[in-house]
Amino acid sequence: MKFAIVGAGNIAQLRRAAIEELPGCSLVGAYDIAPERAAAMAGDGTAFTSLDALMDAPSIDTVIICTPPDTHEEIATAALAAGKHVIVEKPMANSQAACLRMVKAARKADRVLTVGFNHRYFPAIKDVYQAVTSGAIGTLSHVRGYTGHTGLSEFGAEWMYSKDVMGGGALMDNGIHMIDLVHHLMGPVAGVCGKAMTKVWNLDRSEDNAYALLTGADGVVGTLGASWTEWKGYHFYIEAYGTQGMARAYYAPMRSTIITMKRPGAAPVKKNNFYLPLIFREKFKGWQSTAIQTFVEEMTDFQALVAGRTPTGHIARAEDGYRAIEIANAVYSSSDSGRTVKLKKDI
Ligand SMILES: NC(=O)c1ccc[n+]([C@@H]2O[C@H](COP(=O)([O-])OP(=O)(O)OC[C@H]3O[C@@H](n4cnc5c(N)ncnc54)[C@H](O)[C@@H]3O)[C@@H](O)[C@H]2O)c1
Predict the structure, then answer these.
(1) What is the helix, strand, coil percentage profile of the chain, to 5?
(2) What is the pLDDT of residue 156?
(3) CB within 6 Å of ligand 1 — which residues?
(4) Averaged over 179-197, what is the pLDDT?
(5) Residue-level pLDDT at 218
(6) CA 263 to ligand 1 center in whole angstroms
(7) What domains does the chain contain, in order, with CATH numbers?
(8) Which residues contact 312 (CB under 8 A, 6 or more apart)?
(9) How remote is the CA of residue 13 from the centroid of ligand 1, in Å?
């Protein structure tokens, strides 16, 4: 598969490294509003000087969008209209309406549009997902997750905490991965209530902390928190509880615990998973090595989707990207009104 990248910044570097590891795949072009970045990214491929020129290039099968979220819709719809498949980085866009238009554009063009929820490919998360979907922990009761980092010092540019560009604060940044993971594990969400706060950084409409309670159509409950005031550094976990056990993923370092039992309260069987090759790799090559590996797996699934084969079940479709933004927006709306927001079943 021949890829082009739009937006040649930090995440694009990792995407390019992943393409280089994928058999039969190559990066054939790049575009960035900063031409020197496009040139550095494109390497032996074409550094396009306009988005239109990139869209007109027949050699490109798939466009990967790694620009700020307020530009995602325009680039994705142009690519889909030009007959390209699209991978768009998270969050899918900066508004629910934009995401909906992107979903519809992909359907109209009959092209594949997926969203970069690469945390689904963390080995610990895959083990939790397997414990839930296989029934190993019994019938799912509830899911809870949390993601936090230290906030403004994490960001390389002001747009990364701008409501106008991102569509929100912590919930649209690290939180959007957590919303997606809770949704991925618990299934369809019917109602959302929550609170978004701006007490610490006092940013204009970009929350520094948010908490949400999600109710599933079948009585499953999900709770999640997203924070930009995790003073101890990056903290991330997600847990699923069932009638016969629980499964927990934690990062960093990557680890998981799966506890199963024959009936509620019976003797627990505990399995701790330590992902030692990954942990050693990160020691020498940083967290980026894990991100690259998740992109390799995600793009392998992506190729299966394009080829009409069945992917592994982890890849996030356009509808998942839309749902995550819908849930984040429902938290904002619930935070303002103090009410539970009901979500529509169909997109
Ligand atoms: N999957 C993840 O965990 C993850 C992690 C970090 C960032 N992201 C997402 O990736 C995207 C990019 O983030 P980043 O950290 O790489 O940002 P970045 O600032 O490092 O790179 C963005 C690049 O886009 C370019 N750009 C801006 N507007 C453009 C336009 N209209 N057309 C073409 N190029 C344009 C900029 O010049 C810059 O080179 C964002 O959506 C971000 O949320 C995802």
Answers:
(1) 40, 25, 35
(2) 95
(3) 6-12, 31-34, 37, 66-69, 71, 89-90, 116, 118, 157
(4) 98
(5) 81
(6) 48
(7) 2-118 (3.40.50.720), 120-282+317-342 (3.30.360.10)
(8) 297, 301, 304
(9) 10
